[in-house]
């Protein structure tokens, strides 16, 4: 990620709300401590530094995942980075069960270019991104294909963690094609299969009503 943000590594910032104290240690973890004298006061991890949240060539937040277990899943936290006069944890909420949202203010993100992804990449990955932009401009890849290439670039750069399970799920669901070439290839393959099935039906004397060219 952005090298200037590494100045925050090794430091921790706390925020107290009601009976809870939240502590955010950039590039390390997020913890929650119940401020009470009960013998079983809660103290635990809400997430460990995992990956960046990237939108429109911009680092918009940090994902802290694999925290303490919570029912059937692990606690996780998204830390939003916003411009502020000093480094401080400004706001904490829990938008959904065991998924927390933190707002961290810092002067390190006030410059309009401070959170751009492209400048943090190696020359090789920047070239790969440039090529993808050109392919998209020339309409040789779809928007989905472009996003897939970007995701691969971010994973290669170590900004995002590759999750094999999710990729398998996406393959099952997605019926779009990244390139026209792949679409044509798939179409020819399916046409052959349909032809075989039509022949099989004819052999068994089963009438087939199909619209020509369908």
From TrEMBL:
Keyword Membrane: no
Domain of life: Eukaryota
GO cellular component terms given for this protein: extracellular region; Golgi apparatus
Coiled-coil region(s): 180-207
Transmembrane segment boundaries: none
Gene: Gnptg
Record carries keyword Glycoprotein: yes
Record protein name field: N-acetylglucosamine-1-phosphotransferase subunit gamma
Alphabetical list of PANTHER family matching this protein: N-ACETYLGLUCOSAMINE-1-PHOSPHOTRANSFERASE SUBUNIT GAMMA, N-LINKED OLIGOSACCHARIDE PROCESSING
SUPFAM superfamilies: Mannose 6-phosphate receptor domain
Biological role stated in the UniProt entry: Non-catalytic subunit of the N-acetylglucosamine-1-phosphotransferase complex, an enzyme that catalyzes the formation of mannose 6-phosphate (M6P) markers on high mannose type oligosaccharides in the Golgi apparatus. Binds and presents the high mannose glycans of the acceptor to the catalytic alpha and beta subunits (GNPTAB). Enhances the rate of N-acetylglucosamine-1-phosphate transfer to the oligosaccharides of acid hydrolase acceptors.
Molecular function, one GO term: transferase activity
Limits of the DMAP1-binding domain: 117-214
Subcellular location: Golgi apparatus; Secreted
Subunit structure, as described in the record: Homodimer; disulfide-linked. Hexamer of two alpha (GNPTAB), two beta (GNPTAB) and two gamma (GNPTG) subunits; disulfide-linked. The alpha and/or the beta subunits of the enzyme constitute the catalytic subunits.
Domain MRH positions: 10-112
PROSITE patterns for this protein: DMAP1_BIND, MRH
Keywords assigned by UniProt, alphabetized: Coiled coil, Disulfide bond, Glycoprotein, Golgi apparatus, Secreted, Signal, Transferase
InterPro entries: DMAP1-bd, Gtb1-like, Man6P_isomerase_rcpt-bd_dom_sf, MRH_dom, OS9-like_dom
């Amino acid at each position: 990620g952005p090298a200037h943000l590494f100045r925050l590594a090794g430091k921790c910032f706390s925020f107290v709300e009601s009976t809870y104290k939240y502590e955010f240690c950039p590039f390390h973890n997020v913890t929650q401590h119940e401020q009470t004298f009960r013998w079983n006061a809660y103290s635990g991890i809400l997430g460990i530094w995992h990956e960046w949240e990237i939108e429109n060539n911009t680092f918009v937040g940090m994902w802290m995942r694999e925290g303490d277990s919570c029912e059937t899943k692990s606690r996780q936290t998204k830390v939003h980075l916003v411009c502020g006069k000093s480094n401080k944890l400004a706001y904490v909420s829990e938008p959904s069960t065991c998924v927390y949202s933190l707002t961290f203010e810092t002067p390190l993100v006030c410059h309009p270019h401070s959170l751009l992804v492209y400048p943090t990449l190696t020359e090789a990955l920047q070239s790969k991104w440039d090529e993808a932009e050109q392919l998209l401009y020339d309409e040789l890849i779809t928007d989905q294909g472009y996003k897939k290439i970007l995701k691969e670039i971010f994973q290669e750069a170590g900004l995002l963690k590759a999750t094999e399970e999710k990729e398998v799920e996406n393959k099952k669901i997605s019926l779009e094609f990244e390139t026209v070439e792949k679409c044509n290839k798939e179409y020819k393959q399916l046409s052959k299969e349909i032809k075989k099935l039509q022949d099989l039906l004819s052999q068994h004397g089963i009438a087939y009503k199909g619209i020509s060219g369908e």
